[in-house]
Design a protein that fits this description.
This protein is mainly beta and 1269 residues long. The protein is 13% helix and 37% strand. The strands form 18 sheets. Strands 2, 4, 5, 7, 16, 17, 18 and 20 form an eight-stranded antiparallel β-sheet that branches. A seven-stranded antiparallel β-sheet has the order 3-6-19-8-10-12-15, with no helix packed on it. A hairpin with a 4-residue loop joins strand 49 and strand 50. Helix 5 packs parallel to helix 10 and helix 7 runs parallel beside helix 8. It is elongated, with a radius of gyration of 56 Å. It starts with a helix and ends with a helix.
Length: 1269
């Protein structure tokens, strides 16, 4: 009580009236209306409604000298005053010293204590018994050896000086050793006075903030000895708030960012990189003794040391009035970047110097130490449900340092402290933290939020019908009695789960539940508001109800996937027509009903804009055409705003040509006797389209083409500055860049200008902006990125290549429709109109078709392909290549790529059409293996054709897919394949027929080898069918002309082979090679293989006849005959077909010499092991008088066999010679009447001789008997 009176007296004496508060600066976005966080739960009881805002806590005055002695704190204060005096001049140098030492930590704090979970069970909150009008939410003195609440966690060097053991004991005690180790008299030590420290303490329990917050604490920043090379006090302490619907587990980047913001030390060392800010940060207040937290440089800013630290996101831009050392700086909400990292936002909202400095006295081991400085932070309650701002007041030592309207906080927050040191350092302590609501909370209070651990971007996220939306609920009993049976009542969530159903006085619990979004929940304006209440009973059984708590989210009935088809038709020439299509659709409501859009137009007003461009009437000036198109664009924007009744669309205007001007306006300068346009902001973002039209109409042309300055100013328009507000945090941000020429300072392509423009454009894209580029110059082509500087540049600055770092370093990306080409005035109007439609209407955008032909088809030789469009009634819609779409065909990859440059029109079907024919590989594969079971997908036939759906065939495409964006979500091509139609091919037939000639032994089967050209094609086996016919049909490919050679494989040595061939019904020709002509239709080629039995020949003169004559010296002629006998006689082939024997004549044979002759006929036998017999006889003449002829029949055997040595068949006659002998008898010629013949005379003579002999014999017998007598 006495202390309060003393403080009141000090106020009366004017002890706190020494400091003057600086002017407030521009608002940065801290959380905004934030559909997903803006609860409308406001206490409804009359008592609460009638309460005034809280009585301000009595200011505590810290004496800087005691008992007339110069103390350490006084010396520190004097040094602080010196720091303040030189802050403006030395801030950058101080920053450099800090950076050169390499001591600013980059990546936030690593936790050293176990984080308390977000308690589901009831958590007690102490009642401090303060005269505050609001409810006490937290009372933490930090004087004891442990925290008074289990929800505190520490990271890095944070500790409690009262702790004597464990993880909370302080390990570093430079200049704080004398305050260690006494319970009840301690401090929260963030850092001691040593180098390179970082620390954070985090409170991970949501605190209800909807009724305002009043936060008080004492801080200490001092040093009593030098520690290290540098002795400037640094860095400072931050107090920050985060969204209560997300887990608070880690501080942001230390050093210049004071553990709250993201920061990037450009150019410092090789490993410098951007460190993330605290996740879901909504407000950071930095007590910045060193001065870096108050500096915010634009990306790429250079200093005399070669770099400039970029504290805050790349989207923040340059803060024009950094206060430097001994300042209090407020930074707004953080945002995630495209990679999901907390690297955007955290921009400065306000910054003021503290005239008395931020240094404090030295802490003592006293429970009531008064050497610190008191901080009093008040965030006023929201004035009504629709409020978008709250009033922030920051006081130090009772004096108001800063007042500012900030963006509305979430209805519950979590908070933390962070501090760091670098090469410069100081002791940094906290004590006596109390947190109140400004207005008293209801007895039972409820806050409802979307769970931001699961949806970090819930404030801007658009939910679709069917999505599961996770909610968290904070239920608090701020009354004085226990409440039982506490439940959350949500009509759309059937099961809300809470940690407990009993809450003691000043206790709270966290609940959760999930809602499935249905179509009937979504309003026509694209929102869904869900309202819940909490209820319980007191000890007497009385019902206690909370006020309603509502959350509004963006929600739409999403567009389904686009209707798409791939269809095929077989033409009469056996080629195929393939159509690949996609049909546009649009949601019933525009995006602007759920999300505002901020456009920035960046327009070229260089001297070349006076040149002509074609229009419908002939030609017009480029600048005139641009003005017309832009004013039409602005007119459409005005209509949308009028229909919505709000500023759904705002537009900023930038011109670029020559030198830079930081002023807002449409100014010019004179140089060398000529007047040139400045590159400058003509208008910040505004919804006053009429005024903008006037400014557009007043634009004039002259100057260079400083595209880099255009993008630089666009960044300022989007991010805001001290003199203008930037893009809304919940708005879609779109930059439209128009130019007619080369980026340059004079005339030629300037790589520095181009690359600087790309850098600024990348910064915009990194912050979430969409960038369109529009080119009106010769050779403009979005698809041309090889060795074409201007087209490379236009792609690089656009969102086609979001990661481009230089005009020729595009990084990943593709032609996604963000670089557009103009060839006439009509194009220009259409492009601006279509960009506006793309960005304000929910339809299918960034649509592209990729179609890769299969190996079974190829384009016809004319390579004709088209993209056409028809509306729902079949009426043709005119499309222009490079304006409405781009179409490329990669011949090596056989791939079509169609990129639609604008949103697909509702109900319009866009079709890629091309003609293909089967490849030879298709014919070959089909002939070899058929279709392999491949069947065409359903509903793929075009115009009544029936060759694909459900039919066997080959796929016409290897792959085909559709990429698009709808409902704010990108659908990649691989996730949206087209079905597969099929083609059919035919095959031809090679008919092989085998014929036998001869009775030789036939094998059971014969193999035939087929060659296609010079390559083996197939080997087939022929066997006789039931009728004894030998043939087979071989499938061969149709298509190209091919030659097939058929060769029989070794039919045996008994057979000779010959071939004939033909194609179709043609005439047979000799030879085993048949050429099948080119044809897409089926053909039949025939090869006849004839096997004729092999023959062996007994040469002429192989059989000899010898003739002997006895009894005459007179020469006579004798003839002989040889015939075949035996079973094989019929197999002998005589020289003539009518011949069956062979004859030979030996002339003039007498007994004086033996003569011989040979049969002169050549005899042929089948090539088979066999013997053949021949009978040779002498031919008798009619008159044989005196001759006795040899009547013998002599046999000659011819043996046919295979000579393995000679590898051939032979015929051998045995005996090779036969002999006939004739005798001649001389008899007297008796003239007998009647002409007795010689034979008769011989017979008569013989008879007489015989009778004589008998008579002689009888006489002899008679004489013999006579002697006996």
């Amino acid at each position: 009580m006495k202390r309060a009176c003393d403080e009141w007296q000090a106020v009366r004496k004017g002890g706190l009236a020494k400091r003057v508060i600086a002017a407030l600066v521009a608002v940065a976005m801290l959380g905004g209306l934030g559909y997903a966080t803006a609860s409308t739960a406001v206490a409804q009881d009359d008592t609460t409604q009638q309460q005034a805002q809280q009585t301000e806590q009595s200011a505590k005055t810290t004496s800087e000298s005691q008992d007339g002695k110069t103390s350490d704190s006084e010396a520190t204060s004097k040094k602080a005053a010196t720091d303040e005096t030189s802050a403006d001049d030395s801030a950058e140098d101080t920053n450099t010293t800090d950076a050169d030492a390499g001591v600013e930590a980059q990546n936030g704090a690593d936790e050293t204590a176990v984080q308390a979970a977000n308690e589901q069970a009831a958590t007690p909150v102490a009642d401090g018994g303060s005269p505050e009008s609001g409810s006490l939410l937290l009372d933490e003195s930090f004087k004891n050896s442990t925290f008074g609440d289990a929800n505190w966690t520490t990271a890095d060097s944070a500790c409690l000086t009262a702790a004597t053991s464990g993880s909370l004991k302080c390990k570093n005690t430079q200049d704080s050793r004398d305050i260690q180790g006494e319970n009840g008299k301690g401090y929260l030590q963030l850092t001691d006075n040593s180098e390179n420290q970082k620390a954070a303490v985090l409170y991970n329990q949501p605190v209800i903030s909807k009724s305002g917050l009043h936060v008080t604490f004492d801080y200490y920043m001092y040093q009593t000895s030098g520690a290290g090379k540098y002795t400037t006090p640094a860095d400072g302490i931050s107090f920050f708030l985060t969204d209560g619907a997300a887990t608070l587990s880690k501080a942001g980047t230390s050093g210049a960012a004071l553990g709250y913001a993201t920061s990037d030390d450009d150019g410092i060392g090789g490993s410098s990189k951007r460190g993330e800010g605290v996740a879901q940060g909504v407000l950071g207040i930095g007590f910045d003794r060193f001065g870096n937290f108050s500096q915010q440089n634009a990306t790429g800013t250079k200093s005399d040391k070669g770099y400039a630290r970029v504290t805050g996101g790349e989207d923040c831009g340059q803060w024009q009035d950094p206060k430097g050392a001994n300042s209090v700086t407020v930074r707004g909400a953080g945002k995630i970047d495209s990679d999901g990292n907390w690297n955007n936002g955290y921009c400065i909202v306000a910054s003021e110097n503290v005239a008395a400095g931020l240094g404090s006295g030295k802490a003592t081991k006293s429970e009531d130490d008064a050497n610190g400085k008191s901080v009093d932070i008040t965030i006023a309650p929201v004035t009504d449900d629709s409020a978008t701002t709250q009033r922030l007041t920051v006081k130090i030592a009772g004096e108001t340092v800063l007042e500012k309207d900030i963006d509305r906080l979430p209805d519950s927050v979590k908070f933390g402290f962070s501090a760091s040191t670098g090469a410069d350092h100081q002791v940094q302590l906290i004590r006596g933290l109390k947190v109140y609501s400004v207005n008293k909370l209801s007895q039972l209070d409820l806050v409802k939020s979307v769970d931001k651990d699961k949806y970090p971007d819930a404030d801007s996220h658009t939910f679709n019908v069917g999505d599961e939306v996770p909610y968290t609920f904070v239920v608090r009993n701020s009354g004085t009695t226990t409440l039982n049976n506490v439940v959350v009542n949500d009509p759309n969530i059937t099961n809300v789960s809470c940690g407990t159903d009993t809450l003691a006085a000043n206790q709270q619990t966290t609940c959760s539940g999930t809602l499935t979004l249905t179509e009937d929940m979504v309003g026509s304006e694209g929102h869904f508001t869900n309202t819940a209440t909490a209820s319980g009973t007191d000890d007497e059984g009385n019902a206690v109800n909370s006020p309603q708590a509502s959350v509004t989210i963006k929600a739409i009935t999403p567009l389904g996937p686009p209707e798409k088809h791939k269809r095929i038709k077989k033409n009469s020439d056996n080629n195929y027509t393939v159509n690949v299509d996609v049909t546009g659709a649009a949601n019933s409501s525009t995006i602007t009903s759920t999300q505002p859009v901020d456009f920035t137009l960046v327009l070229d007003v260089s001297g070349s804009m006076e040149e002509e461009i074609v229009d419908g009437q002939g030609s017009t000036k480029k600048l005139a055409a641009l003005k017309s198109a832009v004013n039409n664009f602005l007119g459409e924007a005005a209509e949308i705003n009028e229909q919505s009744g709000s500023e759904l669309i705002r537009v900023g205007l930038v011109k670029f040509a020559g030198k830079e001007s930081s002023e807002v306006g449409d100014d010019r300068y004179e140089e060398g006797g000529f007047v040139y346009n400045y590159s400058q902001i003509v208008s910040p973002l505004t919804a006053d389209m009429s005024d903008l039209k006037n400014k557009v109409s007043a634009l004039r042309h002259n100057g260079a083409t400083r595209a880099d300055l255009g993008f630089k100013h666009a960044s300022t328009v989007m991010r805001g500055s001290t003199v203008m507000s930037g893009a809304r945090t919940d708005a879609k941000r779109v930059v439209i860049f128009f130019t007619d020429g080369t980026p340059t300072k004079v005339s030629d392509f300037d790589e520095d200008v181009a690359n600087s423009a790309v850098t600024y454009a990348k910064s915009l894209k990194d912050s979430g902006a969409i960038v369109y580029s529009i080119g009106v110059f010769d050779g403009a082509n979005p698809s041309s990125i090889e060795e074409d500087q201007k087209n490379q540049f236009m792609n690089a600055v656009s969102s086609n290549y979001p990661h481009a770092t230089a005009y020729d370093k595009l990084g990943t990306g593709s032609n996604a429709g963000y670089y557009k080409v103009v060839s006439n005035a009509s194009d220009l109007n259409s492009i601006f109109e279509k960009i506006q439609t793309n960005e304000t209407t929910d339809g299918f955008t960034n649509v592209s078709i990729e179609n890769t032909l299969s190996k079974y088809v190829e384009l016809l030789s004319d390579k004709s392909y088209t993209v056409t469009a028809k509306d729902a009634n079949g009426k043709e819609v005119t499309l222009k290549e490079n304006s409405d779409y781009t179409l490329t065909y990669d011949e090596s990859a056989k791939k079509f790529t169609v990129v639609f440059q604008n949103m697909l029109q509702d109900g319009v079907t866009y079709t890629l059409s091309y003609n293909v024919k089967p490849t030879q590989e298709a014919y070959d594969e089909y002939a070899a293996n058929g279709y392999g079971g491949t069947v065409g997908d359903a509903d793929l036939d075009l115009d009544g054709s029936t060759t694909s759906s459900g039919q066997l065939g080959f796929h016409s495409n290897e792959s085909a897919c559709l990429a698009y964006t709808a409902n704010g979500k990108r659908h990649v091509c691989s996730d949206n394949p087209y079905p597969h139609p099929v083609i059919q091919v035919v095959s031809s037939t090679l008919h092989i027929e085998k014929q036998w000639s001869g009775d030789g032994e036939k094998p059971a089967s014969i193999n035939v080898t087929i060659k296609q050209g010079n390559s083996d094609y197939k080997t087939v086996t022929l066997t006789p069918d039931d009728n004894g016919n030998w043939s087979t049909d071989v499938i061969i490919p149709a298509g190209e002309s091919k030659t097939y050679t058929v060769t029989e494989n070794d039919p045996g040595n008994q057979w000779n082979v010959s071939y004939q061939h033909k194609v179709g019904d043609g005439n047979l020709a000799d030879g085993n090679a048949v050429t099948v002509p080119q044809s897409a239709t089926s053909q039949t080629a025939t090869v006849i293989v004839t096997n004729k039995q092999a023959l062996v020949t007994l040469p002429a003169d192989s059989i000899t006849v010898s003739k002997k004559v006895v009894g005459t010296n007179t020469g006579h002629d004798f003839s002989f005959t040889m015939i075949a006998t035996g079973d094989n006689a019929g197999k002998v082939t005589w020289p003539r077909t009518d011949q069956s024997k062979s004859k030979v004549t030996i002339s003039q044979v007498s007994q004086t010499q033996v003569k011989s002759a040979t049969f002169g006929d050549e005899l042929t036998f089948p090539a088979a092991n066999a013997t053949y017999t021949f009978q040779v006889t002498e031919d008798k003449p009619t008159d044989t008088t005196g001759w006795k002829y040899d009547d013998s029949e002599q046999t000659v055997t011819v043996t046919v066999s295979y000579d393995e040595t000679q590898k051939k068949w032979t015929a051998v006659a045995s005996p090779a010679e036969v002999t006939f002998t004739n005798r001649y008898i001389a008899v007297a010629s008796l003239p007998l009447t009647g002409g007795t013949t010689d034979r008769q005379w011989l017979m008569i003579g013989g008879g007489i001789a015989g009778m004589a002999m008998l008579m002689i014999g009888a006489a002899g017998i008679w004489r013999g008997r006579k002697r006996l007598v």
